[in-house]
Design a protein that fits this description.
Helix content of chain B: over 70%
Structural class of chain A: mainly alpha
CATH architecture of one domain in chain B: Orthogonal Bundle
CATH class of one domain in chain A: Mainly Alpha
CATH superfamily of one domain in chain A: MetI-like
Number of helices of chain A: 13
Largest sheet of chain A: none
Largest interface: A-B, 101 and 105 residues
Strand content of chain B: under 5%
Radius of gyration of chain B: 26 Å
Number of strands of chain A: 0
Shape of chain B: globular
Distance between the termini of chain B: 62 Å
Helix content of chain A: over 70%
Low-confidence stretches of chain A: none
Distance between the termini of chain A: 46 Å
Strand order of the largest sheet of chain B: 1-2
CATH topology of one domain in chain B: MetI-like fold
Oligomer: heterodimer
CATH class of one domain in chain B: Mainly Alpha
Chain lengths: 280, 323
């Protein structure tokens, strides 16, 4: 009698899970199918089997004169990689500064970062554009990269990780061995923090790869634009005249690299989400 | 005595390193967030916009921008934002709680947990603008979804999703749901697994049904994480921009019923009306600041909070004694 309801619950659980899995995967399946089919085939109707126009669609997108896709990929890669590096290095540095040292402003500094932990950057966007225009950084990639030095959410993750896996005795030992403070951080602390840095680097990379609001305000020249802006341009173009094969191909280029990396590293990423609690 | 002096001197010299290590963070914050925020607030009290090629202002106008804000469609857009957020968040929290309970229930023994976790988290990493573009292509009038529904005989004519209010709002809510339910599930699962297993064992021994266990043990124990999920989701909802912007090409159509607050801000920034953009930003900032405070107290319970919690724990016992 005890087993029966449990059995029914298992069946229901599996049905719900399968429906959700279908929802999550089905759209990407259509995307992958349609990016291999020509415009005519797509207009003709939907098919569950891939077509043979993958290479043609790819070449069409890459060589479109109005959409600088190659430079878009390059710009997106530069911004995301630099942001990932800056956010993880400086957040670890900040977390180490507040974790390992005692100084007067330690507590206020910590409380301050915790207070701005989830403050969205959009609220100061107007002043941000003003400031970077005055600094001569409008229409460059710097204003998208440099603010990553102050990443409160990454800081919080690093700080929590240090509390659980960076014993202060280790730093003492390094001091006794004559290591200076900066060397201690680079040679001893960073290697210990590697797992946390890897997880946060992935999140920072993805977040900046996908970022649209601020880049769209900062980058006005075609050659400087990142992928999300190109997608917005494609959306505002006259849609009816557009080659649908190209549309699906550009979407594929924007999201499939992230999915491939995700599948390869999914174990660490899912574990990182569970650990973090804080992610924007 | 001399030893103490040396160690004191050392601490002073080490403190310097603390300041050096945290300096880059605060300098970057000052330049790229604090000064911009101060300017945003400052210009919200000025008439400052561009009309054609001429720049008008900045002239101080007091609270005029805020008055103009209340007379504009600001409240309508705030309502849109709340509706879109709720339509995504309610199914998200229900499904996430359900999945978290199922995944952690030893009696169910669900196989392939890792696989399901990987799949449901995946949409969270997708570029929101590309995802919206994909939905736009799939749900367009002659897109694959309509074609399939018509050919299956479910619909007689293609349904014009993006011309109907419910259709467009539904699509935005569905995208937000798909993008965030995996993330929430994983957070809640971690919270459930942090509960002392002895509690669940005791409940099972006492003959609790799965439903009773869920409502009497799981839910109360994960309350802090639930509060955290709720507040961060509210902040995320306030920031909603990419999906409705790309789906409706910035127009919020039909009839601006999916225009969110950040889309409104974006329009003012785009037309270079800095005074109004400032006023919108300040309102958003105040709401976010309140939510930030709530997150802070949720993550760092203060002394008085702890005392209240202790008192709460004692209360039932007292009542039991009185009874």
């Amino acid at each position: 009698m005890d087993k029966k309801p449990s059995h029914a619950r298992t069946v229901i659980a599996y049905i719900v899970l399968i429906i959700l899995t279908f929802l999550c995967l089905f759209f990407f399946y259509i995307l992958l199918i349609n990016c291999t089919r020509s415009h005519q085939q797509i207009q003709h109707g939907f098919s569950f089997l891939p077509g043979s126009s993958f290479v043609k669609n790819f070449n069409n997108v890459i060589h479109d004169a109005k959409l600088p896709v190659l430079s878009g990929i390059k710009n997106s890669l530069i911004v995301s990689a630099c942001c990932a590096a800056l956010a993880t290095y400086f957040s670890t540095l900040t977390a180490y500064g507040l974790y390992a040292y005692n100084f007067k402003l330690k507590k206020p500094a910590f409380i301050f970062i915790m207070l701005i932990l989830v403050m969205p950057t959009q609220v100061s966007a107007m002043g941000f554009i003003n400031v970077i225009t005055k600094m001569g950084m409008i229409n460059t990639l710097y204003p998208l990269i440099l603010p990553s030095v102050a990443a409160p959410a990454v800081f919080y993750f690093m700080y929590s990780y240090m509390q659980s896996s960076l014993p202060l005795e280790l730093i003492e030992a390094a001091r006794i061995d004559g290591c200076n403070e900066f060397k201690t951080f680079n040679r001893i602390v960073l290697p210990i923090m590697k797992p946390a840095i890897a997880v946060q680097a992935i999140f920072a990379f993805v977040q900046n790869w996908n970022n649209y609001f601020i880049p769209a305000l900062v980058l006005q020249e075609n050659s400087k634009r990142t992928l999300p802006i190109l997608i917005a341009m494609l959306r505002s173009a006259d849609f009816l005249k557009f080659d649908m094969g190209k549309v699906y191909m550009l979407i594929t280029i924007a999201i499939v690299p992230i999915i491939i990396v995700y599948i390869a590293l999914s174990r660490y990423i899912v574990a990182g989400v569970a650990l973090g609690g804080v992610k924007e | 005595m001399s030893k103490k002096k040396i160690s004191a001197e050392r601490e002073v010299s080490y403190a310097k390193w603390g300041y050096i290590f945290i300096a880059p963070f605060f300098i970057a914050f000052l330049i790229f967030q604090f000064v911009p925020l101060a300017q945003t607030i400052y210009y919200s009290f000025f008439e400052y916009y561009r009309s054609g090629l001429t720049v008008i202002g900045p002239n101080p106008v007091g609270l005029d921008n805020y008055k103009a804000l209340l007379e504009s469609d600001f409240l309508k857009y705030a309502g849109n934002t709340v509706i879109l957020w709720l339509a995504g968040f309610i199914p998200q929290i229900i499904i996430s709680l359900l999945l978290a309970a199922w995944f952690t229930d030893v009696r169910l023994r669900i196989k392939g947990k890792q696989f399901f976790k990987v799949v449901i988290y995946m949409p969270n990493l997708i570029m929101a603008s590309a995802f919206a573009m994909l939905f736009f292509a799939l749900f367009s009038n002659n897109g694959p979804v309509n074609a399939t529904l018509v050919s299956l005989g479910i619909l007689e004519h293609p349904f014009r999703f993006l011309s109907s209010v419910a259709g467009t709002r539904g699509l935005v809510a569905m995208m937000n749901f798909l993008m965030w339910f995996g993330n929430t599930t994983i957070l809640l699962m971690a919270a459930v697994m942090g509960i002392n297993p002895a509690l669940f064992e005791a409940a099972e021994l006492d003959g609790c049904s799965p439903r009773q266990t869920f409502f009497r043990i799981t839910l109360p124990m994960i309350r802090p994480i639930l509060v955290y999920v709720l507040i961060t989701s509210m902040i995320g909802g306030l920031q909603m921009f990419d999906v409705p912007q790309i789906l409706t090409n910035g127009k919020g159509s039909p009839d601006r019923t999916v225009t969110t607050l950040i889309m409104f801000l974006n329009n003012h920034l785009y037309s270079k009306n800095y005074g109004m953009a400032g006023a919108v930003s300040v309102v958003l900032f105040i709401i976010c600041a309140i939510l930030c405070l709530l997150v802070y107290f949720n993550l760092n319970p203060t002394e008085s909070d702890r005392k209240i919690k202790k008192r709460d724990k004692l209360k039932p016992r007292k009542e039991a004694l009185n009874g």
